[in-house]
Amino acid sequence: MKAKNIMIVGVGGQGSLLASKLLGHLLLSQGYDVKVSEVHGMSQRGGSVVTYVRYGDHVYSPVIDQGEADFIVSFELLEAARWISYLRKGGVIVTNTQQIDPMPVITGAAVYPDQLVDKMRDAGAKVDALDCLKLAQEAGSAKAVNIVLLGRLSHYFDLPLEAWMRSIEANVPAKFLEMNQNAFRLGREASE
Predict the structure, then answer these.
(1) pLDDT tens digits along 148-163
(2) According to CATH, what is the number of the domain 4-189?
(3) CA–CA separation, 86 vs 47, rounded Å?
(4) DSSP assignments along 41-70, one per residue
């Protein structure tokens, strides 16, 4: 199998590193060669965070170049738009509809762009946009946006639900397991 490429993009503190760890665990458990590369950016200050997950029969490098991502999983709309050039033709953006103002917007030097989902679709991307924050809160914690997004992403994979649940169990503390399993199901079962 030719290597597949997933970019996980967001803002520091949103749980993108846990999402990439969980995804890597899942894909390894299914027999794939997996490479994960974390690019933290300014994660400690709410800046952009990017993680690459590559999997297939043989993966030699964790790096994804422009035009190579099969999926971009985004925790925030502007981050999805920022990284769209990395999406391959026919690729999918799975994004939370939440908007987190970057520093130029906070200081008044810029305005948060509007109609981002429409603009990404107009650029040719297939965009699966969902209010993941609302679903995470419904599951019990706003911090579960990452797991809601993985539930949404699971639509595009022919992997058993049990495998996803085992990876959640292996990567999430027991006291948060049920809440995260619920968050995953809400993301998986939600309609756009």
Answers:
(1) 999 999 999 999 999 9
(2) 3.40.920.10
(3) 19
(4) TTGGGT-EEEEEEEEES--------TT-EE
